Amino acid sequence: MIKKILLILILLTGVVYGRGVIYADHRFLPNTYIDGLRLDGNGYEKGETVKANAPLLKILQKNKDTGAIVSETINMATDADYQASYKVKDLLEAQDELMWFKSLFGKTELSGLALDGHYNMDKLNNRISDLYCFREENVSAPVDAHVDLVNGKLEIVPEQDNLQMNEEAAHSRIVDAISRILKGEKVESVDLSEDYLKAEVRSDSPELAARLAEMKKVTDKKITVKISSDSSQTFEGEKLAELLKVENGEFAVNEDRLAEVVKKIYEDNYVSSYEFIDQEDLMRTLGEALLAAEDKNVEVSWIDSYPSSGNRNNRIEVSISKQTLYYYENDKLVFTSPVVTAAPGITPVGEFEVTKIDGSSILSGPTWEERVEYWIGFDPTGVHKGFHDASWRSEFGGEIYKTDPSHGCVNMPTNMVARLWGLVHIGTPVTIYE
């Protein structure tokens, strides 16, 4: 009897099991899902399709300031018009028919199934181009390691990888992820954090080290500028390096700084408006020497433009900016004196000559009158503009002329104008310049 009951149970179980296998071949088993969508109970036929959910792709990038991971989502439905579906036939075949009874006790998620789908590539490309990593404010191109002057020293400046996405790699990764999804692979994120461009030239480059050694020949040399038989100026080290700059890996002359240096040499060695250093020539020759890879000697050129007429042996020169008078005799500076003038224009600027030499005189204007002991006139009349003592002043030179100027004449200390008065003669050249 027991054997008969067992046999009946086995037969019934076999029938039930067989019916389950047959059912699973034509219908979805209980608690069966695909992409979170429940399949059983919907009456799907083998020739039908089941619409798939559009994927949400997390795109991992780097924060431009901190380098931390930035996550941004591409919704394939709205960002690329994504549409895809599963064939019911494929889904049914993916069920484990022989283990159908397991569906009675828990959820079964089907996976790894290919989809039929399409999306708008142009729209997707537009969305990719709008990612955080491609926005202009978040992009900084990598900078190759290079040789440059840093605080007067030639050295290798390390590369900066910065953050500029490899656009081709980014597009390829995202499109590949979608292709894998359509093939049935589960993909939730695309990591672009390693697809940023890197500087091509690294600081440990042997070629860069060789370039540094070659360029050091330029900065390690010495340039001697011969100003006169007993005067010269040397440029080396940082003093030389500040006259250079590096452009596109090559040395160039720092024209602005060189112009300042040449002007200083010119001013420090100025003789007169007739005899001075040729600044343009010195700019050229010193500029050429700066770019050479060996020591150089540069000799300045002097411009000698004394007029053919007049007395070049004895002359007076006045610098308004320096508030100084220079007296030359036989082309040699005999003495200098501090003065007080008016501003350029009030005290005339240009070439003149002594037209009157007088002793005690009365100088006057609309509201003033002063007596002077020495008068050396240089305007055409000899009475309106001249050199004279100014006993009412206790100081001369400096910037007094800016706050307490003369009326247009050149005020001098009494002892200095007395000396000048005894040396000049009618016709002595006078040059006044700013």
Written account of the structure:
With 434 residues, this protein is of the alpha+beta class. It has 3 domains: 2-141 and 165-191, no CATH class; 220-304, Ubiquitin-like (UB roll) (Roll); 314-433, L,D-transpeptidase catalytic domain-like. 27% of the residues lie in helices and 29% in strands. Helix 8 (255-268) packs across helix 9 (279-290). The longest helix has 25 residues, at 2-26. It is rod-shaped, with a radius of gyration of 48 Å. Residues 307-311 have low confidence and may be disordered.
Structural class: alpha+beta
In what order do the strands lie side by side in the largest sheet? 21-20-19-29-22
Mean pLDDT: 88
Q: What is the percent of helical residues?
A: 25-40%
Strand content is 25-35%
Q: What is Rg?
A: 48 Å
Counted by DSSP, the helix tally is 11
* Total count of strands: 29
Low-confidence stretches: 307-311
- What is the number of independent domains? 3
- Biggest sheet character: 5 strands, mixed
Distance between the termini: 138 Å
Gross morphology is: rod-shaped
What structural keywords apply?
single chain, Ubiquitin-like (UB roll), four-stranded mixed sheet, 27% helix, 11 helices, 434 residues, 29 strands, L,D-transpeptidase catalytic domain-like, alpha+beta
